[in-house]
Amino acid sequence: MSPPSSSILLFLFLLSSSLVPLDASHEVLRTLRSVPIAPSPSPASQPYRTGYHFQPPKNWMNDPNGPMIYKGIYHLFYQYNPKGAVWGNIVWAHSTSTNLVDWFPHPIAIQPSQPSDINGCWSGSATLLRGGRPAILYTGINPENQQVQNLAEPKNYSDPFLIEWVKSSGNPLMAPTPTNMINSSSFRDPTTAWLGSDGRWRVIVGSKRNARGMAILYRSKNFVNWVKAKHPLHSKNGTGMWECPDFYPVSKVPVGFDTSENGPTLKHVLKVSLDDTKHDQYTIGNYNEVRDVYVPDEGQIEGAGGLRYDYGKYYASKTFFDSEKKRRILWGWVNESSSTESDIKKGWSGVQAIPRTVWLDASGKQLLQWPIPEIEYLRTNKVELSRQVLKPGTTLEVNGISAAQADVESFFVAKNLDKAEAFDPKWTDPQILCSRKGASVKGSLGPFGLLVLASKGLEEYTAVFFRVFKGQNKYVVLMCSDQSRSSLDNTNDKTTYGAFVDVDPVQGFLSLNLRSLIDHSIVESFGGRGKVCITARVYPTQAIESSARLLVFNNGTEGIELTKMDAWSMKRAQI
Ligand code: DQQ
Fold first, then answer.
1. Which segments of the chain belong to CATH 2.115.10.20?
2. Which of 234, 258, 352, 573 is an S-S bond match for 54, by CB 3.0 to 4.6 Å?
3. pLDDT the model gives residue 304
């Protein structure tokens, strides 16, 4: 979401205050029962609502905010418009869960109520202070439409659901001033804070100066009085506004670490949501606590062309440390690819991707991501395909699962690597390559993979597939999610997505794993055991509910071995 210009903000504010007056009080509902839970809309009228991806019953949702675990309960807050299916009137909605799959809704946690947030409660993060006490830092929009940073704390620490939040009387705690050089329309989305060994908290806030994206650093001894550091934690010219920064330690062992941990065996990740491109881009590097700077490793690319959490639709993400299961979990917002008119008609917009565990790949050069294992409890009616060769031209239907709501894991092996097409070094953009070489463009080793949400006569399908090329010194594996045939409705954005997967052959064979989480209007795909993720939003008109089909295909001239495929129907989550 790009921040609306001040005139749009003023217009939205006037509109909302003239039609439905903004409630300036911090209304608090006392019990869980007092929250009206809307009945699930019928699938016939709402074929694009998800069965196991998080979404509110209606209206607009964007960024995940303040995820945390407190007293064994997972919390997810999110940017929400209580008044409609388009962005505006932004508050923090709140749900909790014991398993990250089933969610219980709570009253709005934070909404405009004081001058420092009267024009909106925008994104922010939770930090567990000493003794495990949660605190939320979030961006408020003040009466002058300036972006400022505020603090909210639980009213009752013994409530594991953290229903009521109290705003600090000192708000705003960080604000643009005539002397601190902060651009008041580009100063938002505080991260989870981390504690240095000097006993001071640090937090970064996304910003830009001209085209230089930056992570402005603040320090505090008591979490209330914050002092801006002389230099940002990091900045990079040419990258534009950094929204929703995230900064955390990782290691090659697939466990997570508290945000305050640092040491010689840990690397750090700095993720920024690039407002200019709407992509979540990250680098891996080192955090020098003495100088309070982050330095990306040599070879890491910042901005366009760098690493992305997801090469499809995925934005404004945020991680948290799950101290119970010792893992770092990533949440990300998946916006619609439909028109605003369709969103208003269906009455909602936006879903959250399935939470993913993140850790560092053995190469140390990129992250790995995998859907949290809890999601597997929804699997049912397993169908297995055993080892077979997918001959050139194969399209094989996988019967026996509900293909509109499924989890599919396939293991492919490409053997005749000497037959791979030559890779042209000019092909530097995998997304362009995928749109030129879609699923229907024959190759030699590929395209092979899945046709998901496919209609009976293949009038509609989304193709998720690989192609293998022979580069100068190594093989190049391309992973694509081709939405060009996903819907007969041409009002949707059907951009094809793609990425290169960094995998090497072992003993002359290239093994490629593909997992796809299919849920009515979202397809989340993980290639190379989590090296590349691509998420797509699709709106089939025929391949809906029980009419949706799943196929495995090979449109190359060489046979590809399907070592195994496990496919499950997914039960509905309680959301
Ligand atoms: N969404 C929030 C902002 C953030 C943007 C407003 C990112 O705080 O920069 O809803 O999608």
1. 6-31+60-371
2. 352
3. 82
Would you state the torsion angle of the CA atoms of residues 241, 16, 49, 466, taken in this order, to the nearest 10 degrees? -20
Residue ranges lining ligand 1, Cβ < 6 Å: 1, 62-63, 79, 90, 122-123, 139, 188-189, 243-244, 316
Length of the chain: 575
For CATH 2.60.120.560, the residue range(s) in the chain are: 379-570
Our mutation pick for probing the ligand 1 site, out of 186, 243, 277, counting the most ligand atoms within 8 A of Cβ, is 243
Cis peptide before 21 (omega within 30 of 0): no
Task: Kindly report the CATH class assigned to 6-31+60-371.
Answer: mainly beta
Give the 3-state secondary structure of 116-167.
HHCCCEEEEEEEECHHHCEEEEEEEECCCCCEEEEEEEECCCCCCCCCCEEE
State the pTM of this model. Answer: 0.92
Least confidently predicted of 2-11, 84-93, 121-130, 476-485? 2-11
Q: What is the DSSP letter of 362?
A: T
Ligand 1 atom closest to Cα of residue 147: 8
Mean local confidence (pLDDT), 217-224: 98
- Mean predicted confidence (pLDDT) in 1-8: 37
CA Rg, the chain, in Å?
24
pLDDT for residue 5 is more than 90 = no
- Nearest atom in ligand 1 to the alpha carbon of residue 123 is 8
pLDDT at 254: 85
Catalytic annotation, residues: 63
Across 285-292, average pLDDT: 96
